[in-house]
Amino acid sequence: MSLVRPTPPPFEWADPFFTFGVTGTNGKTSTVHMIAAVIAAAGHLPLRISTVDYRLGDVDLGLPHTRKGFFDAFEAARDGGSSWASVEVTSRALADHYAKRWRFDLGVFTNLSADHLSTHGTYEAYLAAKAQLFIHLAPGRTAVLNAADEHALFIDQAIPPDVRRCWFGSPTRGPILRDAQLTAARVEVDATGTRVVLKPSPMADALGGVLETRLVGAVFGENALAAAAAGLSAGFRPDAVKAGLAACPPVPGRFEVLGHDPVAIVDYAHTPDALDRTCRQARALARGRLIVVFGAGGGASPDKRVPMGQAVGAHADVAFVTDDNPRDDDPAQIAAALVAGLHETSAEVHVVLDRAEAIERAMELAAPGDVVVVAGKGHEQGQIRGGECLPFCDRSELRRWLRTS
């Protein structure tokens, strides 16, 4: 059976939309937010669909993260006069054939590392799910791929030859594995934002050789490269791309700096790779110690727990191991696996399963010059235990402590 390309719109009214789809293990949400900011800077009303929210311009649509909510968001965008959308596409959605249900006009691949293996069964199946976004792109459309991630080379082989490729890369991810249209020469980070100095190329020259974003962290430099490559590939003016990236506000729970002395950060990192990069960046900001509060989710990819502990311990002076959506797993067993990884390092370890108490104790321990990272839940508003989701928010807990301290 031949592949139908492009995917036909599910509704006649959907045809005018140009939809950016972003997939990968880490960086999806911030890249989606950056692309939406570029769309806005280009003078269009963006629909933004991410794990944080469904938003049309500045309006939170308040829709559920379901298939119906997805279609309802696009209907609201149509009614509001929008025809541009930036969408986070998870591996679960792609495995559920989302790329056959909605036409994506440009695909972005951020990176791949171990996650969701209990969902997909194997690493190969996880990668194959990600590739679905690009296999269904129409002839002449563009796949934006990470030249510093070896998995992008495999995705490239699966994409039809009549789809354009646009490669980006940053040495903060690793060696650049192939020629790229947009590459970072260096990435500069401080507590107020990130600056990417570009290697000379036609794309880089059009952008003036530099990209800037208010998001803090080298990983956001990578995401800015991806968003810039996507925006230029879609035909947006270079000045709109630069302005959109510079205007994009910090993404809730993505290396979000909530306090400054000590520096207090909430981040969504919940894989070994993401924790390594988050802790490495936090260490670079610290004048004193790095204190990390983290846990691991129950039910999903238990093999990543020991490596998560190793990743944190490689950078942190002090680690507080706590709960993070234990679901039906024994929280003490989850913690034991994380501690096993930490004990291979020199980090000081405390096990405090009550997450609110762990955050409070970490902040009480912190002194000026220290950095505290609360990792794993990011923007989430609940803590899942068994079949129940109890109200809990890392950002609210940390802000409460900062207000009352």
Q: Can you tell me about this structure?
A:
By secondary structure, this protein is an alpha/beta fold. It has two domains: 12-247, Mur-like, catalytic domain (UDP-N-acetylmuramoyl-L-alanine:D-glutamate ligase); 256-404, Alpha-Beta Complex (Protein-Tyrosine Phosphatase, Chain A). Helix content is 37%, strand content 22%. The chain has 15 helices and 19 strands. The chain has helices at 28-41, 67-79, 91-95, 98-101, 117-120, 123-135, 150-158, 202-206, 218-233, 238-247, 272-285, 305-313, 331-342, 355-365, 394-404; strands at residues 18-23, 46-49, 54-56, 59-60, 84-88, 106-109, 142-146, 164-169, 182-190, 193-198, 210-213, 256-260, 263-267, 290-294, 318-321, 348-351, 371-375, 382-385, 388-391. The chain has an eleven-stranded mixed beta sheet with strand order 4-3-2-5-1-6-7-8-9-10-11, with helices on both faces. The longest helix is centred in the middle third of the chain and has 16 residues, at 218-233.
Topology:
Blueprint: E1 18-23, H1 28-41, E2 46-49, E3 54-56, E4 59-60, H2 67-79, E5 84-88, H3 91-95, H4 98-101, E6 106-109, H5 117-120, H6 123-135, E7 142-146, H7 150-158, E8 164-169, E9 182-190, E10 193-198, H8 202-206, E11 210-213, H9 218-233, H10 238-247, E12 256-260, E13 263-267, H11 272-285, E14 290-294, H12 305-313, E15 318-321, H13 331-342, E16 348-351, H14 355-365, E17 371-375, E18 382-385, E19 388-391, H15 394-404
Parallel strand pairs: 1-5, 1-6, 2-5, 6-7, 7-8, 8-9, 13-17, 14-15, 14-17, 15-16
Antiparallel strand pairs: 2-3, 3-4, 9-10, 10-11, 12-13, 18-19
